Known about the structure:
30% helix; 9 helices; alpha/beta; 4-stranded parallel beta sheet; elongated; 11 strands
Amino acid sequence: MSDYSLVLSDDxxxxxxxxxxxxxxxPNLVEKFLNYYHVPHLTCVNQLKRIGNEDTxxxxxxxxxxxxxxxxEDLVTKTRYKxxxxxxxxxxxxxxIDQDKVEKNFTLTFxxxxxxxxxxxxxxxxxLDAKFILIFDRYFCDRWNNTKNLFQKVIPHKNxxxxxxxxxxxxxxxxxxxxxxxxxxxxxxxxxxxxxDRYLLIDNKIEIILSSGFDNLFSTNKDLTCVIRYKS
Length: 232
């Protein structure tokens, strides 16, 4: 496995070095860059010279490692994630930091038998100030012994609207018994229609994907991955 994570285009390498030296001319671009950046990046002697960087120690180190005149496409094959961050191209291996299908999100992964308390605590905190929460899981009611914990432990006990794609209908009366201040409605927008994965969408801004369903958030019988992403 490579010690380097990814490669930067010339303009983003210059941006990174300026930022490192306290020079920030474009804060918005720096913010977008940091949303994607993983340390350390891989560069080469020629790329540093192209942007006018004459860091002798770094140039000597790269030369000693054999990173002298490679193209960005050659360099990226030596990295961990095989990605080049840039601001113009979208075709692989390039990732455009302005907007791309590739995102840098928070992920929690649990193996069989591993405690999921941290995921439960984090999702609970994310829901705390919510006004609307959309729950999408075709098998939610079939696994009620575990999934009811979502309402007992995670959803805040306050006036809030819970949306669903008809998957909660069979348990609506039982959910209302847990907290009568909740409003439960079908999602008229059909946000996740035909989706395979399971989702929790908070105020249409924070999306949580649960790879093996809500029941495995409260059970350790199967593995589980939670992906938390902000929808801009």
